[in-house]
Protein backbone atom coordinates (compact mmCIF):
# COMPACT_ATOMS: atom_id res chain seq x y z
CA UNK A 1 0.00 0.00 0.00
CA UNK A 2 1.30 3.44 -0.90
CA UNK A 3 2.32 5.78 1.89
CA UNK A 4 -0.10 8.48 0.75
CA UNK A 5 -2.99 6.03 1.08
CA UNK A 6 -1.88 4.74 4.46
CA UNK A 7 -1.59 8.28 5.84
CA UNK A 8 -4.93 9.31 4.32
CA UNK A 9 -3.39 12.15 2.33
CA UNK A 10 -5.47 14.09 -0.18
CA UNK A 11 -2.46 14.04 -2.50
CA UNK A 12 -0.86 11.50 -4.80
CA UNK A 13 2.60 11.23 -6.38
CA UNK A 14 2.35 14.27 -8.71
CA UNK A 15 1.62 16.56 -5.76
CA UNK A 16 4.34 15.13 -3.52
CA UNK A 17 8.00 16.15 -3.57
CA UNK A 18 9.12 12.68 -2.43
CA UNK A 19 8.72 9.16 -3.79
CA UNK A 20 5.34 7.84 -2.65
CA UNK A 21 6.75 4.54 -1.43
CA UNK A 22 5.01 1.20 -1.03
CA UNK A 23 5.28 0.11 2.59
CA UNK A 24 5.15 -3.60 1.72
CA UNK A 25 7.47 -3.73 -1.30
CA UNK A 26 10.60 -1.91 -2.37
CA UNK A 27 10.37 0.19 -5.52
CA UNK A 28 12.96 -0.57 -8.25
CA UNK A 29 14.51 2.87 -7.78
CA UNK A 30 17.89 3.94 -6.46
CA UNK A 31 19.25 7.11 -4.94
CA UNK A 32 21.54 8.57 -7.58
CA UNK A 33 24.46 10.60 -6.14
CA UNK A 34 25.04 12.10 -9.59
CA UNK A 35 22.18 14.39 -8.65
CA UNK A 36 24.39 15.92 -5.96
CA UNK A 37 27.20 16.76 -8.41
CA UNK A 38 27.33 20.51 -9.09
CA UNK A 39 24.60 21.08 -6.48
CA UNK A 40 22.18 23.98 -6.79
CA UNK A 41 19.90 23.56 -3.77
CA UNK A 42 20.90 23.36 -0.11
CA UNK A 43 19.88 19.70 0.33
CA UNK A 44 22.09 18.56 -2.56
CA UNK A 45 25.01 20.64 -1.30
CA UNK A 46 24.81 19.14 2.18
CA UNK A 47 24.59 15.61 0.78
CA UNK A 48 27.54 16.15 -1.57
CA UNK A 49 29.67 17.59 1.24
CA UNK A 50 28.98 14.57 3.47
CA UNK A 51 29.65 12.05 0.70
CA UNK A 52 32.98 13.65 -0.16
CA UNK A 53 33.94 13.96 3.49
CA UNK A 54 33.23 10.27 4.09
CA UNK A 55 35.27 9.04 1.13
CA UNK A 56 38.11 11.37 1.93
CA UNK A 57 38.20 9.83 5.43
CA UNK A 58 38.28 6.30 3.99
CA UNK A 59 40.95 7.17 1.43
CA UNK A 60 43.05 8.99 4.04
CA UNK A 61 42.96 5.92 6.27
CA UNK A 62 44.21 3.80 3.35
CA UNK A 63 46.93 6.34 2.48
CA UNK A 64 48.02 6.37 6.14
CA UNK A 65 48.23 2.58 6.12
CA UNK A 66 45.43 2.33 8.70
CA UNK A 67 43.56 -0.45 6.92
CA UNK A 68 41.53 -1.38 9.99
CA UNK A 69 40.12 2.11 10.27
CA UNK A 70 39.15 2.13 6.58
CA UNK A 71 37.43 -1.22 7.02
CA UNK A 72 35.64 -0.02 10.16
CA UNK A 73 34.32 3.10 8.41
CA UNK A 74 32.96 1.02 5.53
CA UNK A 75 31.64 -1.81 7.69
CA UNK A 76 29.46 0.69 9.58
CA UNK A 77 27.27 1.11 6.50
CA UNK A 78 24.01 -0.56 7.47
CA UNK A 79 21.00 -1.99 5.65
CA UNK A 80 18.84 1.05 4.81
CA UNK A 81 15.37 -0.54 4.71
CA UNK A 82 13.63 2.68 5.71
CA UNK A 83 13.60 4.19 2.20
CA UNK A 84 11.80 1.18 0.66
CA UNK A 85 13.84 1.61 -2.51
CA UNK A 86 16.12 -0.71 -4.39
CA UNK A 87 14.45 -3.97 -5.42
CA UNK A 88 11.29 -4.75 -7.34
CA UNK A 89 9.75 -7.57 -5.40
CA UNK A 90 9.66 -9.25 -2.03
CA UNK A 91 9.95 -7.77 1.43
CA UNK A 92 12.24 -4.76 1.79
CA UNK A 93 15.76 -5.95 2.49
CA UNK A 94 18.71 -3.63 2.47
CA UNK A 95 22.07 -4.95 1.43
CA UNK A 96 24.47 -2.99 3.60
CA UNK A 97 28.18 -3.67 3.86
CA UNK A 98 29.50 -6.23 6.31
CA UNK A 99 33.06 -6.66 7.50
CA UNK A 100 34.04 -9.13 4.77
CA UNK A 101 32.77 -6.87 1.98
CA UNK A 102 34.35 -3.86 3.68
CA UNK A 103 37.69 -5.68 3.60
CA UNK A 104 37.18 -6.42 -0.11
CA UNK A 105 36.35 -2.79 -0.88
CA UNK A 106 39.36 -1.52 1.03
CA UNK A 107 41.56 -3.94 -0.89
CA UNK A 108 40.03 -2.79 -4.19
CA UNK A 109 40.63 0.83 -3.19
CA UNK A 110 44.23 0.10 -2.23
CA UNK A 111 44.84 -1.64 -5.55
CA UNK A 112 43.21 1.01 -7.69
CA UNK A 113 45.52 3.54 -9.36
CA UNK A 114 42.65 6.00 -9.15
CA UNK A 115 42.84 5.92 -5.34
CA UNK A 116 46.62 6.08 -5.20
CA UNK A 117 46.80 9.14 -7.45
CA UNK A 118 44.01 11.19 -5.88
CA UNK A 119 41.61 10.75 -8.79
CA UNK A 120 38.80 9.71 -6.44
CA UNK A 121 36.91 12.49 -4.73
CA UNK A 122 33.32 11.26 -4.38
CA UNK A 123 31.01 8.30 -4.74
CA UNK A 124 30.54 8.85 -8.47
CA UNK A 125 34.27 8.32 -9.01
CA UNK A 126 34.23 5.14 -6.92
CA UNK A 127 31.28 3.74 -8.85
CA UNK A 128 33.17 4.27 -12.11
CA UNK A 129 36.54 2.87 -11.03
CA UNK A 130 36.17 0.50 -8.06
CA UNK A 131 35.01 -3.11 -8.42
CA UNK A 132 32.28 -4.17 -6.01
CA UNK A 133 30.36 -0.90 -6.14
CA UNK A 134 27.30 -1.14 -8.38
CA UNK A 135 24.03 0.79 -8.58
CA UNK A 136 22.41 -0.93 -5.59
CA UNK A 137 25.53 -0.57 -3.47
CA UNK A 138 25.91 3.07 -4.49
CA UNK A 139 22.33 3.74 -3.39
CA UNK A 140 22.77 1.96 -0.06
CA UNK A 141 26.08 3.69 0.69
CA UNK A 142 24.58 7.05 -0.23
CA UNK A 143 21.55 6.49 2.01
CA UNK A 144 23.78 5.77 5.00
CA UNK A 145 26.01 8.77 4.50
CA UNK A 146 23.17 11.27 3.95
CA UNK A 147 20.79 9.77 6.55
CA UNK A 148 20.94 12.94 8.66
CA UNK A 149 19.64 15.04 5.77
CA UNK A 150 16.99 12.47 4.81
CA UNK A 151 15.70 12.59 8.39
CA UNK A 152 15.46 16.39 8.28
CA UNK A 153 13.75 16.21 4.90
CA UNK A 154 11.27 13.60 6.17
CA UNK A 155 10.41 15.78 9.16
CA UNK A 156 9.83 18.78 6.87
CA UNK A 157 7.53 16.84 4.56
CA UNK A 158 5.46 15.36 7.39
CA UNK A 159 5.07 18.87 8.83
CA UNK A 160 4.06 20.20 5.41
CA UNK A 161 1.41 17.49 5.11
CA UNK A 162 0.14 18.07 8.63
CA UNK A 163 0.99 14.54 9.78
CA UNK A 164 2.42 14.40 13.32
CA UNK A 165 5.47 12.30 14.18
CA UNK A 166 4.86 10.53 17.48
CA UNK A 167 8.25 10.55 19.17
CA UNK A 168 11.96 9.88 19.11
CA UNK A 169 13.27 6.52 17.94
CA UNK A 170 16.80 5.26 17.13
CA UNK A 171 18.04 6.77 13.88
CA UNK A 172 20.85 4.38 13.07
CA UNK A 173 24.41 5.54 12.57
CA UNK A 174 24.93 8.98 11.05
CA UNK A 175 28.08 10.46 9.55
CA UNK A 176 29.64 13.43 11.37
CA UNK A 177 31.25 15.69 8.78
CA UNK A 178 34.56 17.18 9.80
CA UNK A 179 35.13 14.63 12.54
CA UNK A 180 35.56 11.54 10.31
CA UNK A 181 33.38 9.34 12.46
CA UNK A 182 29.98 7.70 12.73
CA UNK A 183 27.60 8.94 15.41
CA UNK A 184 25.79 6.17 17.27
CA UNK A 185 23.03 5.92 19.87
CA UNK A 186 21.18 8.92 18.46
CA UNK A 187 17.43 9.37 18.74
CA UNK A 188 15.31 11.69 16.62
CA UNK A 189 11.76 12.22 15.38
CA UNK A 190 11.29 9.54 12.75
CA UNK A 191 7.87 8.40 11.55
CA UNK A 192 6.68 4.88 12.27
CA UNK A 193 4.00 3.88 9.77
CA UNK A 194 2.35 0.51 10.37
CA UNK A 195 5.24 -0.23 12.72
CA UNK A 196 7.87 0.44 10.02
CA UNK A 197 10.45 3.22 10.08
CA UNK A 198 10.11 5.53 7.09
CA UNK A 199 12.68 7.76 5.42
CA UNK A 200 11.41 9.87 2.55
CA UNK A 201 13.59 10.46 -0.50
CA UNK A 202 13.12 13.46 -2.82
CA UNK A 203 11.94 12.18 -6.21
CA UNK A 204 14.45 14.53 -7.87
CA UNK A 205 17.32 12.30 -6.72
CA UNK A 206 16.15 8.80 -7.66
CA UNK A 207 16.83 6.89 -10.88
CA UNK A 208 16.35 3.46 -12.37
CA UNK A 209 19.12 0.91 -11.78
CA UNK A 210 20.91 1.54 -15.05
CA UNK A 211 21.78 5.15 -14.28
CA UNK A 212 25.31 4.54 -13.03
CA UNK A 213 26.08 2.11 -15.84
CA UNK A 214 24.84 4.67 -18.35
CA UNK A 215 27.27 7.17 -16.87
CA UNK A 216 30.20 4.77 -17.31
CA UNK A 217 29.07 3.96 -20.84
CA UNK A 218 28.85 7.66 -21.67
CA UNK A 219 32.36 8.26 -20.34
CA UNK A 220 33.83 5.33 -22.25
CA UNK A 221 31.97 5.93 -25.53
CA UNK A 222 32.17 9.69 -25.84
CA UNK A 223 35.37 10.57 -24.02
CA UNK A 224 37.71 7.59 -23.74
CA UNK A 225 37.24 6.09 -27.20
CA UNK A 226 37.22 9.50 -28.90
CA UNK A 227 40.51 10.40 -27.21
CA UNK A 228 42.10 7.06 -28.13
CA UNK A 229 40.89 7.40 -31.71
CA UNK A 230 42.37 10.89 -32.07
CA UNK A 231 45.66 9.82 -30.50
CA UNK A 232 45.92 6.74 -32.70
CA UNK A 233 45.34 8.84 -35.82
CA UNK A 234 47.81 11.49 -34.67
CA UNK A 235 50.61 9.03 -33.91
CA UNK A 236 49.87 6.38 -36.52
CA UNK A 237 49.14 3.81 -33.83
CA UNK A 238 48.54 0.09 -34.17
CA UNK A 239 44.74 0.50 -34.35
CA UNK A 240 44.86 2.64 -37.48
CA UNK A 241 43.39 0.97 -40.57
CA UNK A 242 44.31 2.23 -44.04
CA UNK A 243 41.36 2.05 -46.40
CA UNK A 244 42.02 2.42 -50.12
CA UNK A 245 39.20 3.29 -52.49
CA UNK A 246 40.19 3.85 -56.11
CA UNK A 247 42.85 6.55 -55.97
CA UNK A 248 41.97 7.73 -52.44
CA UNK A 249 43.48 6.54 -49.21
CA UNK A 250 41.75 7.04 -45.86
CA UNK A 251 43.00 6.31 -42.33
CA UNK A 252 40.44 5.23 -39.78
CA UNK A 253 40.20 3.82 -36.25
CA UNK A 254 37.11 1.76 -35.47
CA UNK A 255 35.46 1.79 -32.05
CA UNK A 256 35.09 -1.99 -32.11
CA UNK A 257 38.87 -2.28 -32.34
CA UNK A 258 39.33 0.16 -29.46
CA UNK A 259 36.90 -1.90 -27.38
CA UNK A 260 38.77 -5.12 -28.18
CA UNK A 261 42.10 -3.47 -27.35
CA UNK A 262 40.84 -1.79 -24.16
CA UNK A 263 37.59 -3.31 -22.84
CA UNK A 264 35.51 -0.91 -20.68
CA UNK A 265 36.32 -2.50 -17.33
CA UNK A 266 36.56 -0.40 -14.18
CA UNK A 267 40.26 -1.17 -13.88
CA UNK A 268 40.91 -0.09 -17.48
CA UNK A 269 38.92 3.10 -16.98
CA UNK A 270 40.91 3.85 -13.84
CA UNK A 271 44.29 3.31 -15.58
CA UNK A 272 43.23 5.41 -18.55
CA UNK A 273 41.97 8.25 -16.35
CA UNK A 274 45.17 8.30 -14.29
CA UNK A 275 47.26 8.50 -17.45
CA UNK A 276 44.96 11.09 -19.03
CA UNK A 277 43.50 13.12 -16.15
CA UNK A 278 42.51 15.95 -18.46
CA UNK A 279 40.01 13.70 -20.25
CA UNK A 280 38.40 12.72 -16.96
CA UNK A 281 38.28 16.35 -15.80
CA UNK A 282 36.53 17.29 -19.03
CA UNK A 283 34.04 14.48 -18.47
CA UNK A 284 33.35 15.47 -14.86
CA UNK A 285 32.79 19.05 -15.97
CA UNK A 286 29.91 17.80 -18.12
CA UNK A 287 28.37 15.62 -15.40
CA UNK A 288 25.33 17.41 -14.12
CA UNK A 289 22.19 15.86 -12.79
CA UNK A 290 20.37 14.24 -15.65
CA UNK A 291 16.71 14.83 -16.47
CA UNK A 292 14.27 14.25 -13.66
CA UNK A 293 12.61 10.86 -13.43
CA UNK A 294 9.46 10.96 -15.53
CA UNK A 295 6.27 11.53 -13.56
CA UNK A 296 4.41 8.96 -15.63
CA UNK A 297 6.90 6.21 -14.79
CA UNK A 298 6.75 7.10 -11.11
CA UNK A 299 2.97 7.04 -11.16
CA UNK A 300 2.85 3.67 -12.88
CA UNK A 301 5.20 1.86 -10.50
CA UNK A 302 2.15 0.33 -8.82
CA UNK A 303 0.86 -0.93 -12.18
CA UNK A 304 -1.97 1.57 -12.64
CA UNK A 305 -1.97 3.67 -15.84
CA UNK A 306 -1.61 7.43 -15.35
CA UNK A 307 -3.80 9.62 -17.56
CA UNK A 308 -2.58 13.16 -17.06
CA UNK A 309 -5.65 14.82 -18.61
CA UNK A 310 -7.99 13.08 -16.16
CA UNK A 311 -5.70 13.90 -13.24
CA UNK A 312 -5.56 17.58 -14.21
CA UNK A 313 -9.31 17.83 -14.60
CA UNK A 314 -9.88 16.33 -11.17
CA UNK A 315 -7.29 18.64 -9.63
CA UNK A 316 -9.16 21.63 -11.08
CA UNK A 317 -12.39 20.37 -9.55
CA UNK A 318 -10.72 19.88 -6.16
CA UNK A 319 -9.42 23.45 -6.21
CA UNK A 320 -12.75 24.93 -7.27
CA UNK A 321 -14.68 23.02 -4.57
CA UNK A 322 -12.69 24.58 -1.71
CA UNK A 323 -14.81 27.31 -0.05
CA UNK A 324 -13.18 30.67 0.57
CA UNK A 325 -12.62 31.87 4.10
CA UNK A 326 -10.56 31.19 7.20
CA UNK A 327 -12.23 27.85 7.98
CA UNK A 328 -10.88 26.23 4.80
CA UNK A 329 -7.57 28.09 4.67
CA UNK A 330 -5.55 24.99 5.59
CA UNK A 331 -7.21 22.89 2.89
CA UNK A 332 -6.49 25.58 0.32
CA UNK A 333 -2.94 25.90 1.63
CA UNK A 334 -2.22 22.15 1.21
CA UNK A 335 -3.89 22.02 -2.20
CA UNK A 336 -1.86 24.93 -3.55
CA UNK A 337 1.34 23.42 -2.15
CA UNK A 338 0.54 20.23 -4.06
CA UNK A 339 -0.34 22.07 -7.27
CA UNK A 340 2.92 24.04 -7.23
CA UNK A 341 4.89 20.87 -6.41
CA UNK A 342 3.25 19.22 -9.43
CA UNK A 343 3.41 22.02 -11.98
CA UNK A 344 6.72 23.69 -11.05
CA UNK A 345 8.74 20.46 -10.61
CA UNK A 346 11.73 20.11 -10.99
CA UNK A 347 12.36 23.87 -10.91
CA UNK A 348 10.92 24.42 -7.44
CA UNK A 349 11.55 21.58 -5.00
CA UNK A 350 11.66 20.71 -1.29
CA UNK A 351 8.62 22.65 -0.06
CA UNK A 352 8.90 23.66 3.58
CA UNK A 353 5.94 24.72 5.66
CA UNK A 354 5.91 28.01 7.57
CA UNK A 355 9.64 28.48 7.74
CA UNK A 356 10.73 30.43 10.84
CA UNK A 357 12.80 33.50 10.05
CA UNK A 358 14.14 36.36 12.15
CA UNK A 359 13.99 34.26 15.33
CA UNK A 360 10.35 33.40 14.74
CA UNK A 361 9.07 36.97 14.36
CA UNK A 362 7.88 36.22 10.83
CA UNK A 363 6.65 33.05 9.18
CA UNK A 364 6.40 32.01 5.54
CA UNK A 365 3.44 29.95 4.35
CA UNK A 366 5.62 27.78 2.09
CA UNK A 367 9.21 28.08 0.93
CA UNK A 368 10.49 26.21 -2.15
CA UNK A 369 14.14 25.71 -3.05
CA UNK A 370 14.90 27.09 -6.50
CA UNK A 371 16.70 24.27 -8.34
CA UNK A 372 15.99 25.43 -11.89
CA UNK A 373 18.88 24.82 -14.27
CA UNK A 374 17.47 26.89 -17.13
CA UNK A 375 14.59 29.18 -17.93
CA UNK A 376 12.78 31.83 -15.90
CA UNK A 377 13.52 30.61 -12.36
CA UNK A 378 17.16 29.95 -13.16
CA UNK A 379 17.46 33.55 -14.34
CA UNK A 380 15.76 34.76 -11.15
CA UNK A 381 18.29 32.86 -9.03
CA UNK A 382 21.32 34.48 -10.69
CA UNK A 383 19.75 37.94 -11.00
CA UNK A 384 22.06 40.23 -8.98
CA UNK A 385 19.14 41.91 -7.20
CA UNK A 386 16.56 39.13 -6.78
CA UNK A 387 19.03 36.29 -5.98
CA UNK A 388 16.08 33.91 -5.71
CA UNK A 389 17.74 30.90 -4.09
CA UNK A 390 14.35 30.20 -2.57
CA UNK A 391 10.88 31.20 -3.68
CA UNK A 392 8.45 32.20 -0.95
CA UNK A 393 4.79 31.32 -1.40
CA UNK A 394 1.82 32.86 0.42
CA UNK A 395 -1.63 31.29 0.18
CA UNK A 396 -4.61 33.61 0.76
CA UNK A 397 -8.01 31.93 0.80
CA UNK A 398 -9.84 35.26 0.73
CA UNK A 399 -13.21 36.14 -0.78
CA UNK A 400 -12.07 39.71 -1.44
CA UNK A 401 -9.06 41.04 -3.36
CA UNK A 402 -5.61 41.17 -1.85
CA UNK A 403 -4.81 44.47 -0.13
CA UNK A 404 -1.64 46.37 0.74
CA UNK A 405 -1.19 44.33 3.91
CA UNK A 406 -0.73 41.08 1.96
CA UNK A 407 1.82 42.66 -0.38
CA UNK A 408 3.68 44.25 2.56
CA UNK A 409 3.66 40.90 4.33
CA UNK A 410 5.49 39.24 1.44
CA UNK A 411 7.94 42.15 1.10
CA UNK A 412 8.82 41.80 4.77
CA UNK A 413 9.87 38.23 4.17
CA UNK A 414 12.40 38.93 1.46
CA UNK A 415 16.07 39.05 2.36
CA UNK A 416 19.41 38.73 0.50
CA UNK A 417 20.05 35.20 1.81
CA UNK A 418 16.96 33.53 0.40
CA UNK A 419 16.14 36.10 -2.26
CA UNK A 420 13.44 38.56 -3.25
CA UNK A 421 11.00 36.54 -5.34
CA UNK A 422 7.60 35.52 -4.06
CA UNK A 423 4.38 33.96 -5.30
CA UNK A 424 1.10 35.08 -3.76
CA UNK A 425 -1.71 32.62 -4.49
CA UNK A 426 -5.32 33.75 -4.15
CA UNK A 427 -8.77 32.66 -5.26
CA UNK A 428 -9.92 35.54 -7.49
CA UNK A 429 -8.78 38.98 -8.62
CA UNK A 430 -11.56 41.51 -9.14
CA UNK A 431 -9.43 44.61 -9.70
CA UNK A 432 -6.36 43.30 -11.53
CA UNK A 433 -5.00 46.74 -12.39
CA UNK A 434 -4.97 47.94 -8.79
CA UNK A 435 -3.29 44.75 -7.54
CA UNK A 436 -0.68 44.88 -10.31
CA UNK A 437 0.12 48.50 -9.46
CA UNK A 438 0.76 47.52 -5.84
CA UNK A 439 3.21 44.85 -6.98
CA UNK A 440 4.84 47.32 -9.38
CA UNK A 441 5.36 49.75 -6.52
CA UNK A 442 7.32 47.06 -4.66
CA UNK A 443 9.45 46.40 -7.72
CA UNK A 444 10.09 50.09 -8.37
CA UNK A 445 11.17 50.54 -4.76
CA UNK A 446 13.61 47.60 -5.20
CA UNK A 447 11.83 45.62 -2.51
CA UNK A 448 11.33 42.50 -4.61
CA UNK A 449 9.25 40.78 -7.29
CA UNK A 450 5.82 39.44 -6.42
CA UNK A 451 3.93 37.26 -8.91
CA UNK A 452 0.24 36.73 -8.19
CA UNK A 453 -1.44 33.45 -9.21
CA UNK A 454 -5.21 33.05 -9.00
CA UNK A 455 -7.37 29.96 -9.37
CA UNK A 456 -7.92 30.96 -13.00
CA UNK A 457 -4.15 30.92 -13.61
CA UNK A 458 -3.77 27.44 -12.15
CA UNK A 459 -6.77 26.13 -14.09
CA UNK A 460 -5.36 27.59 -17.32
CA UNK A 461 -2.03 25.86 -16.72
CA UNK A 462 -3.71 22.56 -15.84
CA UNK A 463 -5.43 22.71 -19.21
CA UNK A 464 -2.04 22.02 -20.78
CA UNK A 465 -0.33 18.62 -20.62
CA UNK A 466 3.24 17.35 -20.60
CA UNK A 467 5.62 19.61 -22.53
CA UNK A 468 2.86 22.08 -23.34
CA UNK A 469 2.31 22.88 -19.66
CA UNK A 470 5.99 23.62 -19.06
CA UNK A 471 5.99 26.03 -22.01
CA UNK A 472 2.78 27.69 -20.81
CA UNK A 473 4.15 28.04 -17.27
CA UNK A 474 7.37 29.63 -18.53
CA UNK A 475 5.38 32.07 -20.68
CA UNK A 476 3.01 32.98 -17.84
CA UNK A 477 5.84 33.63 -15.37
CA UNK A 478 7.70 35.81 -17.86
CA UNK A 479 4.53 37.74 -18.68
CA UNK A 480 3.78 38.41 -15.01
CA UNK A 481 7.38 39.51 -14.42
CA UNK A 482 7.36 41.82 -17.45
CA UNK A 483 4.19 43.43 -16.16
CA UNK A 484 6.06 44.41 -13.00
CA UNK A 485 8.68 46.29 -15.01
CA UNK A 486 6.31 48.63 -16.82
How would you characterize this protein structure?
This protein is of the alpha+beta class. The protein has 3 domains: 3-207, no CATH class; 211-266 and 276-286, no CATH class; 307-484, Restriction Endonuclease. 46% of the residues lie in helices and 14% in strands. The protein has 20 helices and 15 strands. The strands form 6 sheets. A 5-stranded mixed beta sheet has the order 11-12-13-14-15, sandwiched between helices. It has a two-stranded antiparallel sheet with strand order 1-8. A two-stranded antiparallel ribbon has the order 2-5. Residues 88-94 have low confidence and may be disordered.
Question: Taking Cα atoms only, what radius of gyration do you get, to the nearest Å?
Answer: 26 Å
- Return residue spans where pLDDT drops below 50 for at least 5 consecutive residues: 88-94
Question: What oligomeric state best describes the polypeptide chains here?
Answer: single chain
Average predicted confidence as pLDDT: 87
Number of helices: 20
Amino acid sequence: MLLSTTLGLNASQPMLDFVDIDLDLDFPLYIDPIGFVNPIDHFAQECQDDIRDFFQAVLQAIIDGDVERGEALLAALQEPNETHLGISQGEPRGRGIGLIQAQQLVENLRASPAARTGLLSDLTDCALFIDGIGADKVSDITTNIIRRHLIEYTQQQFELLGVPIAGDIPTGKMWVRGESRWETDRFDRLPLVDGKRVLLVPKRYVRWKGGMQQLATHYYTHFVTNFIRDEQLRTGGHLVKVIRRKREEKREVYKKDIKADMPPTKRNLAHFSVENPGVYRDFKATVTRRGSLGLRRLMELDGEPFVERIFNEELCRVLQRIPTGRRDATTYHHTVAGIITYMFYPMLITPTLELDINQGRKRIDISFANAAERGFFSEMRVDPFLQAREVMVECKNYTEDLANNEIDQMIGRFDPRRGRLGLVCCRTIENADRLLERCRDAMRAQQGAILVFSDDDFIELLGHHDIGRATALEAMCRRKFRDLLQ
